[in-house]
Amino acid sequence: MTDIDKAPAGPLLDPEEARRLRAERLESVGKWFLPLAIMAFAILMWDRIVVWNEIPKYILPRPGVVLETLWNDAGLLFSSLLVTLRITFLGLLLAVVGGVGLAVLFAQSKWVEMSFFPFAIVLQVTPIVAIFPLINIYVDNQTAKLLLCAWIVAFFPILSNTTLGLNSVDRNLRDLFKLNGATHWQQLRYLRLPAAMPYFLGGLKIAGGLSLIGAVVAEFVAGAAGQSSGLASRIIEAGYRLNAPRLFAALFLISLTGIVIFLVLTLVSHLMLRSWHESALKQER
Amino acid sequence: MLTLRSVGKTFSNGVVALRDVDLDIREGDFVSLLGPSGCGKSTALRLIAGLGTPTAGVLDWRGAGFSGRGNIGFVFQEPTLLPWANVFDNVWLPLKLRGVSRRAAEPAIREMLDRVHLTGFEKAVPRELSGGMKMRVSIARGLVTKPKILLMDEPFAALDEITRFKLNNDLLELWQDERFTVVFVTHSVFESVFLSTRIVVMAARPGRIHSEIAVDAPYPRDEAFRTSVEYAALCRQASQVLVDAMHLAPGDPYDGH
User: Fold this and answer.
1) Whole-model pTM?
2) How many domains does chain B have?
3) ipTM of the predicted structure?
4) Which CATH class is domain A69-280?
């Protein structure tokens, strides 16, 4: 028996492992603390700059004033938020249905994909603001107009990711299905769709944010004509009236919504993939 | 049960993968296709499976007792499991594709899992399993439909030697109980001698059959056989033939690899 064997209970770590453990602990605290501290500092500086330079609140309101406005105008702002959210989610839903539907259609044959994919790209690369006047002419229904915009912006990442996923099936697994006499439909349902799931969820995460952007942009263009009641029109309105606090409050709500959408979709993705996909697994040393 | 006559396969890029392959596979045989890489042994297996069509010659399934390719078990070099499905569902897959419900398939699946010593792992997903266990699932899946013929494409090549020995033993046990026919592709002399009734040695460029070795050692073969003088002699014989086959390859002198 040497002295080392009689070391006190608990893990005895060599300097390297101890250093690593310290670094890990520091990182787990810093991961949350650092961004929050920087954010708090930025808000503080914002407040100080306004006070020091005596900037009037119709140019740049203090953060406290924005918060106050958020509280005072809550009724108006949140009802507008609901309008925007409705368009965002319906747009996202349609993007999922349309994106996955088209991807499955494309997956039926290389020829279909080669023939129709360019259209999807054209739709994607043309700025939605530039298309909107046309949509405005062709579509009467206000909601349909906005939905179409949100859909055009959001469906592409879902389509392209899902198409990629459907075509990324392990070759041996394909052979296995063939050997067991799988029908086209069985192959799609039991092999290609599950295999495309991680790709689809990646696309969904992007589409969630884009759908919000699409909805807000559409409201902006429509709102300029005084036809919308979403958050974007609140922003335009506040801009006309030099009501900067409300403008900031509305902006804050939009950002917050985008963040929440992203977090929710990330959680959904994690829950669906955690049992099997590499992306959802904890890294092991 | 299966006869290959003058079978050849030329790929569209001009590579001659197989030329003039004559092979008889009898019911209950354990045939190993042994050869260097590029000798077309995997191609031959894929042709037998129906995953490709021969450019020349015929595959004759007459006397197979069933209509050719209706029921073939196939085990790939990789375990090739559905990563999102658990062990039970992975083994169920071939039956599911034949329209057998989960409930109806359950006894067969449980029996198969028991045979490959995986009882208790039904709910595990592939990533939780070791390489050897994944391969066991793959074998269970290959056999769950009770195929008359099991095709295996270097199934144990990626496993460590200890695991490979174990799986060799288990595979032989299964084979002796059920007496399905096996065509086993390998580049390991030792593995082919340990397992097979016959070894078909192949040569490369173009892929063709060089010769055949009958392995007359009786079954059951176990660890005692693995260390026996007889086994060593058979391995030496097979190695010699393999060296011959590799010397034969034109423009590709045997360089010890």
Assistant:
1) 0.84
2) 1
3) 0.89
4) mainly alpha
Q: Does B83 touch chain A (CB under 8 A)?
A: yes
Distance from CA of A189 to the nearest CA of B (A): 11
Q: Which residue of B has its CA nearest to A186?
A: B97
Which chain A residue is nearest to residue B68, measuring alpha carbons?
A179
Which structural domain range is residue B86 located in? 79-146
Report the C-alpha gap between A164 and A106 in whole angstroms.
10
Spacing of C-alpha B4 from chain mean position: 17
Classify residue B95: in a domain, yes or no: yes
Look at A194 and B82 and tell me if their CB atoms are within 8 Å. yes
- Residue B152 zone, left/alpha/beta (φ > 0; ψ -120 to 50; rest): beta
Return per-residue pLDDT of chain B as tens, 257 residues.
788 888 888 888 888 888 888 998 988 899 999 988 888 888 999 999 888 888 988 888 765 555 545 688 999 999 999 999 999 999 999 999 999 999 999 999 999 999 999 999 999 999 999 999 999 999 999 999 998 899 999 999 889 989 999 999 999 999 999 889 999 999 899 999 999 999 999 988 888 888 888 888 888 888 888 889 988 999 999 999 898 888 765 555 444 44
**Cβ A281–B51 below 8 Å, yes or no?**
no
Helices (H), B68-182: 87-97, 102-115, 131-143, 161-178
Q: CB atoms < 10 A from the CB of B178, how many?
A: 14
Interchain contact, A172 vs B126, CB within 8 Å: no
